[in-house]
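Researcher: Next entry in the queue.
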Amino acid sequence: MTTTWAGCAIPDDLLYDTHHDVWVRVEDDIATLGMTDVAQTRCGRLVQLSWKRLGAEARRGRPLSVIESAKWVGPFVSPVSGAIVAHNRDAFDSDVAVANRDPYGMGWLYRIELADQAELADLVEAEAAFLHYRRMIEENNIRCFRCEQ
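Model: Structure for this entry, 149 residues:
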């Protein structure tokens, strides 16, 4: 199930790093990471991303990518530590706005083999994330949208 506010989706089956606007899907010891719907909306249409190489170590609180968009340039920060086992560079190379269209599906960025499952305790569940994002949305008059092309 997905909860929405002002068009912004917050899927119930994910964990969130609300400080860095990152969602996390955990399957066994692999964490898939991506930008939240609120993040992709605030950034605007993506134009370029840098990528860490496969096998590199991700460190919690450190950048994995630099994201450049029509309105913003900044880091995509990892909420977990571990080895990068996959990235979605091919999808972004063929359609740089894939995260603008499908932030929780085809727009994922990295898959990390978790080094320390205890780090997941620092993430918040969907209900707390929804309350955080609802407050942010209302305070900043945000209306989420998806790029069409």
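Model: Residues 2-140 form a domain with the OB fold (Dihydrolipoamide Acetyltransferase, E2P) fold (CATH 2.40.50.100).
Researcher: Noted, moving on.
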